[in-house]
Design goal:
The complex is a heterodimer.
Chain A lengths: L3 H18 L20 H15 L5 H6 L3 H11 L1
Helix pairs in contact in A: 1-2, 1-4
Chain B lengths: L8 E4 L5 H12 L3 E6 L3 H13 L4 E5 L5 H15 L2 E6 L14 H29 L2 E6 L12 H21 L4 E8 L12 H4 L10 H12 L10 E4 L6
Parallel strand pairs in B: 1-2, 1-4, 2-3, 4-5, 5-6, 6-7
Helix pairs in contact in B: 1-2, 1-7, 3-4, 4-5
The chains are: A mainly alpha, B alpha/beta.
Chain lengths: ~80, ~240
């Protein structure tokens, strides 16, 4: 079994890589960065939710997506549910 | 503008006959591998597949009732496993159950809305997952001149097709920046099984003075699915001999 630390790091890498693919500036992608500051919109977050569902089997609903404001919020949400 | 990835396929609903079959053949002619989706027309679907393969294309028949969400999902998965990601979806399958609104039963209303509109939405939602991730997608919804125009006796059909045009425009706006286009084609009187009972007098009201052919509709689908149409999205292309003009 991987440790929870490893899990979080894996999740964080997937999230960071995805955000970079969506066009966020790599140097600005940090856990406390808001999606708004990274110019990541609701369609990007919907796509990120699908990527996370495919990779970790964690379903993020529209209602969850409205609650997450920062990159760290998503990583925490997936870590808590995976 | 990014070109179409070569590993993708097109899925056409209601593709055993008429406009759907013609669209499947036209897309195959344009290099798409095509999933020929049908509900219960295996012989005709296989004929469409054979026509495509004999012309040098790739196709397979897939059986599904599009009003069954689980069946749609299975059909998608089957097409993706055999032909690659679905990067072109043609929502063509449709039905009629005509009657005046004041005497139309809920069953006829629900069946037409579910088949013509709700199934198209579910298939679109399913298709968008792969299209957005691939940064390429083409969705073509086969609407109708009925909807934008009145046609007494078809309140359910008109509502479903007008709804499909509304769906087209909004989804197009949602996914445009991911290089996914969503358009509608609105046929007028086209010579198919579904219009066989339309009186000739009505056909004579068409400015072109003739009915259209499935191939003429399919040519528009082919264009909207092509790389050349990459900047065309959210629009409705009328193929109606001037009826809506």
């Amino acid at each position: 079994m991987p440790t929870s630390t490893t899990d979080t790091a894996t999740i964080q890498k997937v999230v960071f890589d995805s955000l970079e693919t969506f066009g966020a500036e790599p140097s600005e992608i940090k856990l406390d960065a808001t999606f708004e500051s990274l110019d990541i919109d609701s369609l990007d977050i919907a796509e990120l939710a699908q990527i996370l569902d495919d990779k970790f089997g964690v379903e993020i609903k529209s209602s969850d997506a409205e609650q997450v404001k920062t990159v760290g919020d998503v990583v925490d949400l997936v870590a808590a549910r995976s | 503008m990014s070109p179409r990835p070569q590993d993708g396929c097109a899925l056409v609903t209601g593709a055993a006959r008429g406009i759907g079959s013609a669209a499947a053949r036209a897309l195959a002619d344009d290099g798409w591998a095509v999933a020929v989706l049908h509900r219960a027309s295996a012989t005709e679907a296989e004929a469409t597949v054979t026509a495509i393969t004999e012309a040098g294309g790739r196709a397979m028949a897939v059986t599904a009732d599009i009003t069954d969400p689980a069946g749609c999902d299975r059909a998608f998965t089957e097409a993706e496993e055999r032909l690659g990601p679905v990067l072109c979806l043609v929502n063509n399958a449709g039905m009629r159950a005509d009657g005046l609104a004041m005497s139309m039963g809920d069953d006829d209303w629900d069946a037409v809305i579910d088949t013509n509109l709700s199934a198209g939405f579910r298939l679109t939602r399913r298709a968008l997952r792969g299209m957005v991730r691939s940064r390429f997608g083409r969705i073509v919804n086969i609407a109708s001149v009925v909807g934008p125009r009145a046609n007494a006796g078809q309140a359910n059909y008109a509502a479903s097709k007008a709804g499909l045009i509304g769906l087209t425009r909004t989804v197009a706006a949602e996914v445009a920046r991911k290089n996914v286009t969503v358009n509608a084609v609105a046929p007028g009187f086209i010579e198919t099984d579904m219009t066989a009972d339309v009186p000739d007098a009505i056909k004579e009201s068409v400015p072109a003075r003739r009915a259209g052919t499935p191939d003429e509709v399919a040519a528009c689908v082919r264009f909207l699915a092509s790389d050349d149409a990459g900047y065309v999205t959210g629009t409705t292309l009328y193929v109606d001999g001037g009826l809506a003009a």
